[in-house]
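HUMAN: Ready with one sample?

ASSISTANT:
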Amino acid sequence: MSNVVTAIKVQQATAEAIHDEVVMLGAKDMICQITGSYEMPSDEIILALFKYSAILSANVATRVTTVLMTEGEFNSMCNELREFDEMGRGVFDE
């Protein structure tokens, strides 16, 4: 499997984890029960949890990627992704 495919699969798994509604709603309820406070609107709690989980998941994805790849492989993957990005921009600019 190419490094780019591996990175994309890690990214997809991370996105799925971030958008897990059951986990987010469960975490919101747990926070409200522990603090005894339901004063903060649910949508604000969910947004705060989403932001936190996005940061945490990005950190985990980066660490997993560095475990799966050598520094050279990682740099090669980044270069491939830059090339794909440039090709995409060229297509959309036309």
